[in-house]
Amino acid sequence: MSEAYIVAATRTAGGRRGGRLAGWHPVDLSAQVLNALLDRSGADPVLVEDVFMGCVSQVGEQSTNVARNAVMASRLPDSVPGTSIDRQCGSSQQAVHFAAQAVMSGCMDIVIAAGVESMTRVPMFSPSSLAQKAGLGFFQSPGINKRYNDVVFSQFAGAELMAKKFGLSKDELDRFALLSHQRAIAATQAGAFKEEILPVAVRSPEGVDTGEMHMVDEGIRFEATLQGIQNVKLLQEGGVVTAANASQVCDGATGVMVVSERGLKLLGVKPLARIHHMSVLGHDPVIMLEAPIPATKRALKKAGLKIEDIDLYEVNEAFASVPLAWLKALGASPDRLNVNGGAIALGHPLGASGTKLMTTLINALGQRGKRYGLQTMCEGGGMANVTIIERL
Q: Where is the Thiolase C-terminal domain (predicted)?
């Protein structure tokens, strides 16, 4: 079978809601990433054959095929198409899979997989909430309600169910949240993100450059303390989940360039990593967030690997209960998990998080001289993508 290689990867630093990226139209922000991938790979723009872009809230500024719109705002020629992908939080990880499948099949040689989400300008749940307000109905159909006994699917309820099922206390969740910040602080201060972050100008609400550059993840709380995290109110009475031990709302754009063997020769570059395995699995949509566990087990089996063979893992910190349950179920080493912090500290820009985690994973493997990395994330509807890469 033909191989798929990653030759360039980059991301913007995360922006808080209403923060340093709020002045960017998401199309223009993602165009900056597309341009940066051209610069980093040295690719002639005309050689790019497609752009797959993850985005969850495809409405307003992110509607009408945000991927193609990003192409039109970038240096890529009109000949480059684009398609937008919604696999919920795994949208841009799925974009990587589609890009890899395209080059492995021999249909294409040079493809970009990317993601964007401006959670400031297009708030979470916008597609469904706006439709309901307009009287256009709700996504849960009578057929779904009949099958699942009228359960209202909720990621917040799922996080509580995960904590209960795996015996995780609030103290464990809070301590993990603090660790996420501590690792992100250490990585930032050591310059670990320097190679992966694309500096972009800070813009005013009117879209005018302020002269400042955004280069540091805005969600990191450098003053974080366990007591401060513990004092944040519960999202549900009697529960264990708080805003402090869950991922942060975040603005951001991210991307990777995926090529075939022929693409490597056309570009004359050395690959950063090879995609060793990719798969996706559906699971229980009620608990919703547990899917990374069976998905990882199946992926390792299909790849002929054991968890001990994986040097680093990126498991998205949608809620602290997810990576902690994953560690418990897989018997994995906590020292290899989200070594530069995760979404609790760095933010979770929904559809952009897949290629964000991939970019960080590739760089972390390189900095540590490690070989195999595994990435997975829970997704709305009870799904999970798993990608295993080999650093080259």
A: 270-391
- 313 phi, psi to nearest 5 deg: -125, 140
pLDDT given for residue 132 in this prediction = 86
Query: How far is the C-alpha of 64 from the C-alpha of 74, rounded, in Å?
Result: 17
Angle separating helix axes 321-330 and 170-189, nearest 10 degrees: 100
Whole-angstrom distance, CA of residue 50 vs CA of residue 80 = 6
Residue 312's pLDDT band (cuts 50, 70, 90): very high
Count of alpha carbons within 13 Å of 319, Cβ hemisphere only? 29
Torsion of CA 358, 158, 63, 280, to 10 degrees: 50
- Kindly state the greatest CA–CA separation across the chain: 59
Q: Strands, E, within 237-391: which ranges?
A: 251-259, 273-282, 312-315, 372-379, 383-391
- Give the pLDDT of residue 206: 80
What is the model's pTM? 0.97
Q: Phi, psi (5° rounding) for residue 382?
A: 80, 55
Would you state the structure tokens that stand for residue 38, as one six-digit string?
Answer: 């051209």
Residue 11 tokens, joined? 């991301």
C-alpha torsion angle, residues 15, 17, 19, 21 (rounded to 10): 50
Catalytic residue list: 89, 348, 378
Pick from 260, 273, 308, 258: which is nearest to 388 by CA? Answer: 273
Residue 278 region by backbone torsions, left for phi larger than 0, else alpha for psi between -120 and 50, else beta: beta
